Amino acid sequence: MRVEPLTPAIAPAWDAFVLAHPAGWFWHTTGWLRYGLALGGDREDLSFAVLDGDQIVAVCPLLREGGRIAFEGEPGAWPLVDSSRAGWASATTPWATLSSEIKRCGPAWFRSCPLAAPPPCDGSLAEAIGWQSRVIDLTQDVKALHAGLRRSYKALINFGMRGFDLAVGSDLASAYSNVHKQALSSRPDETYRMQADWARVGLAFLVGAMQRSRWVAFAYVFTYKGMAYYGSGPSLERGAMHAVLWHAILEAKARGCSRIELGWQGHARDAKGRGVERFKAGFGGEDVPIWVVLASKELL
């Protein structure tokens, strides 16, 4: 087996491997890794694939940010290995090759994704529940989804739907970026262009709220493998986001998504973050553990 760095030449095969793998999700794709680099600053893509002949048998997303391997300061997506391969123990398995290469790159940590099957772990990595993420089952009917809302949210959603004009579309990306830059810290323009591309090809959709001919709030939702992830929710007006996110949940269901992940719980580091977590928790669903593994030089 041999190791190949992630290059444009192997990117199509990499993405096909992720798409076919039960534990693969959008965070493993080459597009998401390019987004991580596009955030700018001291970043380097160390991602690599393990090949057996000309066939990819494992992929490892790996971004260096400053002096550590992470993705926006958090653990990156868990490495994926062809599930038909042998276990971890043999020195000739993809896992052994992965471990050796990660050790060469330096200490790294990884996390699971609630929208994908959990990868295996044999104890050679330090594994623990890091935090949780709120996930809603969209196979329920709309009446059941509405019943799962926090009681106070029902009135807030009705208020927002009366006070704002809601729209869905991939052509809202420019308006979304303008609202995002005003409401939250601005990112490099390339990241907004990538988000627009994903929406255009069906890897995301946007729900926007307009008031008096002015866009004031958005939900940007990723879609991949029949599931959805609420990625961003910039807002310039109070009272808009409850209706926007509820509309996004219903839109994800209408698009055939079976689950939607709203975001992390129990991971906030300040009062603002805890407020965001409480906001997301009010839309129902349940908290799913995020498994985190540390791959240190001592453990590999």
Largest sheet: 9 strands, mixed
**Fraction of residues in H or I helices:** 25-40%
Number of H- or I-type helical stretches: 9
Q: Structural class of the helix and strand makeup?
A: alpha+beta
The side-by-side strand order for the widest beta sheet comes to 7-9-16-10-15-14-13-12-11
Stretches where pLDDT is under 50 for at least 5 consecutive residues are 86-91
Number of strands: 16
- Our measurement of the CA-to-CA distance between the termini, rounded to an integer number of angstroms, reads 18 Å
Radius of gyration: 20 Å
Binned strand content: 25-35%
Overall geometric form: globular
Sketch the topology as an H/E string, one letter per element: EHHEEEEEEEHEEHHEHHEEEHEHE
Name the average pLDDT.
Answer: 90
Give the arrangement of secondary structure elements:
Blueprint: E1 2-5, H1 11-20, H2 30-38, E2 43-45, E3 48-52, E4 55-60, E5 63-65, E6 68-69, E7 76-77, E8 80-81, H3 94-105, E9 108-111, E10 126-137, H4 142-147, H5 151-163, E11 165-168, H6 173-183, H7 189-200, E12 204-211, E13 214-224, E14 227-232, H8 241-254, E15 259-265, H9 271-281, E16 286-295
Parallel strand pairs: 7-9, 14-15
Antiparallel strand pairs: 1-3, 2-5, 3-4, 4-8, 5-6, 9-16, 10-15, 10-16, 11-12, 12-13, 13-14
Give keywords:
300 residues, alpha+beta, nine-stranded mixed β-sheet, 9 helices, 16 strands, 33% helix
What would you say this structure looks like, in words?
This protein has 300 residues and is of the alpha+beta class. It contains nine helices and 16 strands. The chain has helices at residues 11-20, 30-38, 94-105, 142-147, 151-163, 173-183, 189-200, 241-254, 271-281; strands at residues 2-5, 43-45, 48-52, 55-60, 63-65, 68-69, 76-77, 80-81, 108-111, 126-137, 165-168, 204-211, 214-224, 227-232, 259-265, 286-295. The longest helix has 14 residues, at 241-254. The two termini are 18 Å apart.
